[in-house]
Amino acid sequence: MRTRQGHLTWWHLSLLGTGCTIGTGFFLGSGIAIQKSGFTVLILFVLAALGTSFVFATLAKMTAAYPEQGSFRTYAKQAYGRWAGFSSGWIYWSSEMLLSGSSLTALSLFSQFWFPQIPLWILTSVYAALGLTVVIRGAGGFEKTEDVLAILKLSALVLFIFVALSVWLGRSGMSHSGPKLPASLDEWFSPGFKGMWTGLIYVFYAFGGIEVMGLMAAGLREPHHVMKSGRVMLLIVTVLYMTSMVLLLVLVPLEQLQQQESPFISGLRSLGFHVLVHGFNAVLIIAGFSTMVASLYGVTLMLVTLAEDGDAPQCFSGRKGNRRMPYAALGLTAAGLAASVLLALWTPKHIFEHIATASGLVLLYTWCFILISAPRVVKLTTGDKIKSFSALLLIGAAVSGTLAEASSRPGFWVSLLVVVIIAVVTLFMRLKWRKQEAKRKYGIGSV
C-alpha cells in the first residue's frame, strides 16, 4: 500500500541524510581504520563510497517504484514473505540498538578528553540517563533537530578542512615541512593486504545512515527524486570525508593519531590549535548526543511499529492517539543501553572498537537484505545486477575482515549471536504463523 504524498523536498532529504550519516562512525571510527590501514585508508574510503552508492541505488529504485512507509523491511516481506520482513526488521532494530551503544561510548570517550579521571562506565551512565530523559519527554521536532545536527557536523568538517588547508598552504603563520605522503608504493601499502582487509568494516561504518534515508523517503513530495537526494548526499559526504582524510594524513604523522580519541582532535592538537581542539571536541559531543537521542527514538519507534504489525509482543505497541512511547518499549531500549554501560565497565580499553564492529556488521546485514530483495521487487538491468553483486562482494570482504584480527573478532561474534537469535525466533514464529493460518483456514488448532 502506498503512503500519502509527503512534505519533504529532495534537498531537505539530502540534508537529513547527511545528518544521519556523518557521525561518530566517522569522527571516531576513522581513527581505528587509520591505525589498521595507514595511508591505504584513502583507497578504502573510495571502495566503501562505491559500495554504499550501489546499495542506495538499489534501495532508491524500490522506493521510487513503491514508496512504502516500512521501506526495506516492507520490500523484504514482499520479496520473500512475512519471515523476511520479521527478521529484517529485528536485524535493523538490533543494528540501531548497537549504534546507540557505540554513540554512547563515543560520547564518553570525547568527554574523557576533559575529564580523564572519570571512568568510562560512569560517563556512559550519565549520557544514557540524559538520552532516555529526552526520549521520554517528547516525540516531536526530530526533523528540525536533524537539520541543526547536519549543519553542525558539516560546519565542523568544513572548519577542519579550512584550518588544515591554511596550514598546508602556509597561510596560518605556522611552520610546516610540506606534504608527508609516502614516496613509494611500499610505503603506501606498508600495512599490507591484511591492514586494508581489517580496516574496511570501519570505513563502511562511517557511511551508515543511508538506510535511514530509505525510511524517510516515504515523506518525499516526489518519490522519484529519492535517487537525486541520495546522489547529492553521498557526493557531499564522500568529498568531505576524502578531503579531510587527505589533509589529516598529509599534515599529521600516523603515530600521533590515537585510536582511543577522534583523529581530528589528535590532528588539531598536533598542529598546535589547542583552543580549537576544545571547541571541536564540544561540537563532537553535541552532535554525538543529538545522534544518540535520534537513534534511541528511532529504535524505540521501530519496536512500536514491529508490535503494531504483529511482529513483536503487543505490550510494545502504543495506544492510538497517544504520542508517548510505551513504557515497555522504552524499558527494552533502556536495557540495551544498560548493556552498553556494563560493557564499558568490563572492557573499557577496546569498548568502542567492539561495539562499532558489531554495529557495523549488523548494519551491513541489513544492507544485504536490501540487495537480495530488489530482484524480486523491481526489474533490474544488467548494470544494476553487476552493481548489486559488487556491493555484496565488498560487504563480504568487510565482514570476513573482522575475523583476521583478534581485536575485532568479539564484534563479529556478537553480530553472529544477534543473527542466530533472530533466526531461531523467526523459525519459531513461522511455525506459529502456520498454525494460525491452518486454524483460520480449516478451523483447527494444529497442522
UniProtKB/TrEMBL annotation:
Q: Which GO terms describe its cellular component?
A: membrane
Subcellular compartments: Membrane
Amino acid permease/ SLC12A domain location: 12-396
Protein's GO biological process: amino acid transport; transmembrane transport
Q: Membrane-spanning residues where?
A: 12-33, 39-59, 80-98, 118-136, 148-169, 199-220, 232-253, 273-306, 327-348, 354-374, 386-404, 410-431
Among Pfam families, the record links this protein to: AA_permease
Is Transmembrane one of the keywords UniProt gives this record? yes
Annotated membrane topology? Multi-pass membrane protein
Q: What is its main location?
A: membrane
Question: What are the protein's UniProt keywords?
Answer: Amino-acid transport, Membrane, Transmembrane, Transmembrane helix, Transport
Q: What's the protein name?
A: Amino acid permease
Organism phylogeny: Bacteria, Bacillati, Bacillota, Bacilli, Bacillales
